[in-house]
Amino acid sequence: MMMDRQKMLQQLQDVRQWDIIVIGGGATGLGAAVDAASRGYKTLLVEQEDFAKGTSSRSTKLVHGGVRYLAQGNIKMVREALRERGLLLKNAPHVCHNLSFIIPSFHWWQKWYYSIGLSMYDLLAGKLSLGKTKMLSKKTTQQLVPAISSQNLSGGVLYHDGQFDDTRLAVNLAQTAEEQGAAILNYCKVIALIKTEKRISGVEVQDLLSGKKYSISGKAVINATGVFTDKVIEMDDPNHQPIVSPSQGVHIVVNEKFFPGKQALMIPKTDDGRVLFAVPWHDKVILGTTDTPINDIALEPKALQEEIDFIIHHSNRYLSSQIEYKDINTVYAGLRPLIKVKGKKSTSILPRDHTTIISESGLVTITGGKWTTYRTMGKHAVDNAAFACKLPKHGCVTATLPIHGFQDNTNIEDVLNIYGSDAKKINQLIIEQPSLQEKIHPALPYSKATVVWAVQNEMAMTVEDVLARRTRSLFLDAKAAVEAATLVASIMAPLLNQTEEWQQQQVKQFTALSHNYLLH
Ligand SMILES: Cc1cc2nc3c(=O)[nH]c(=O)nc-3n(C[C@H](O)[C@H](O)[C@H](O)COP(=O)(O)OP(=O)(O)OC[C@H]3O[C@@H](n4cnc5c(N)ncnc54)[C@H](O)[C@@H]3O)c2cc1C
Questions:
Q1: 227 C-alpha vs ligand 1 centroid, how far in Å?
Q2: Is 246 in the pocket of ligand 1 (CB under 6 A)?
């Protein structure tokens, strides 16, 4: 089914009262919208920019229990995330897959230490385990991770976790919610909450593309706005004390020649106590991340020089070929919405679980957590909304609900695999118009057909939507993405009834944005 923005906007006028309005179209909000709609609630989701424009496009791309949280003793959280990992791999096998990770060891005891911990990780996954942990000799470690420096290496441990494409999953969740009956809108910002007799009874929304404002009535309102959580709570209660403590994480993306092979590398403890990952992703490698407390909450956070240097320095300690600034294709930064804990200053020790709050006026806020647990977060948000706003009871059905694009036979080598069951429809576009097979740029894997598909079926409204989130061009190779912008704008314009001037403006805006992702 295609997501038609115009039709959804029409529903803003036609629907008299929604059961549940979700503010925020990141992992959490989309999870809540899928949950609410699939229970049968009349559901609306509004996102101020594009789906996953915020933190949800900027993750390490892991569907994981969190090995490091196990080391911190948070067994309950790890068990829940491992269960969610298993369910996601079952319900969306086209966007998530099993990946082997290798932890190198440099002392004989490390191999035993990690392998005992990781065997427990497997055990906690129970039936949803992705494979057994194995101890590796030095030779096998080098064979599996050819890029690893042999200096002091004594062997390694191999374990399994999941990997995904965060924005592709976000788009598929939006599609799933729509198929379950929800209205899902990007570029619609909540500018105020409406109250009737001190209870929240709806939201004021502005369509940022047309400027038009709407007053929308709803029985329950869920605030799933990530690092913007406090701003929305303030609309409810101007005296509210902030609950979110944003922490920035940066990644760099390099060509696979720096890290060939199919396995990921995990370094359990960097100098600041974090883990460092080198993860093959599409045809590139992601290295990161950092954990920097930040005061400025922005939709486009900027990587700090010291964060980039930290990643290069730590990666180069373990890799045989050394990464330099000029080798970086893209750098991207994201803000974790961590829950504040009194007296704790370092964000790396703040809890990673999620929190749900119901305000006196009935606003349900859900924040914290991680992408992996988006489904349970959605469930908790809807359970609380149904309770607080006295909606008729309906049980959650998402544990076994296939996500849009679901198909059994996946081949991750195929560039269209990520589109799942939609891949054959994209191929059909090419059969009808063979020129759509041409790539948008020689260094990017995407065809012109994926641009047409994104506009016609995935609610892509801007060049950035296509290059950053429908395809991952900006995250794989920022320079190539900028070079492709003019072509992409020219494909989009007629489909969106836009002018030559729109095209120029789009290219200008995208080029300006790309400076955040480029180092040279
Ligand atoms: C560096 C980094 C790496 C990570 N890696 C992983 C990982 O590998 N695996 C994992 O499981 N998790 C990971 N996470 C965590 C995960 O990415 C986040 O927990 C998750 O994306 C948060 O989603 P969210 O929906 O709560 O927030 P967001 O994605 O930020 O979504 C909130 C949305 O609300 C919208 N919004 C705000 N105000 C309004 C308004 N007034 N009206 C309408 N919309 C509004 C915003 O535009 C935004 O899109 C990582 C996080 C970071 C920062």
A1: 7
A2: no
CATH 3.30.9.10 fits 96-163+245-342, yes or no: yes
Per-domain residue ranges of the chain: 5-55+168-243+348-400, 96-163+245-342, 417-514
Helix, strand, coil fractions of the chain, as percent rounded to 5: 40, 25, 35
With contact defined as beta carbons under 8 Å apart, do 259 and 279 qualify? no
Residues in the chain: 520
Q: What is the pLDDT of residues 313-337, one digit of tens each?
A: 999 999 998 999 999 999 999 999 9
Residue 83 has pLDDT above 70, yes or no: yes
* pLDDT tens column, 437-478: 999 999 999 999 999 999 999 999 999 999 999 999 999 999
Instruction: Judge if the beta carbon of residue 225 lies within 6 A of ligand 1.
Output: yes
Q: Model pTM greater than 0.85?
A: yes
Which residue has tokens 């703040």?
A: 350
Going by pLDDT thresholds of 50, 70 and 90, the confidence category of residue 344 is: low
Q: State in Å: Cα 55 to ligand 1 middle.
A: 3
Mutational test site, ligand 1, from 221, 307, 371, max ligand atoms within 8 Å of CB: 371
- Cα 450 to ligand 1 centre (Å): 25
Fold of 5-55+168-243+348-400: FAD/NAD(P)-binding domain (3.50.50)
- Please work out whether the CB of residue 65 comes within 6 Å of at least one atom of ligand 1: no
CATH 1.10.8.870 fits 417-514, yes or no: yes
Phi-psi label, residue 211: left if phi above 0, alpha if psi -120 to 50, beta otherwise: left
Torsion of CA 483, 486, 488, 489, to 10 degrees: 150
The ligand 1 atom at the shortest distance from the C-alpha of residue 251 is: 1
Ligand 1 center from residue 371 Cα (angstroms):
8
**Which residue do the tokens 């424009």 mark?**
53
Per-residue 3-state assignment (H helix, E strand, C coil) for 386-438: HHHCCCCCCCCCHHHCCCCCCCCCCCCCCCCHHHHHHHHHHHHHHHHCHHHHC
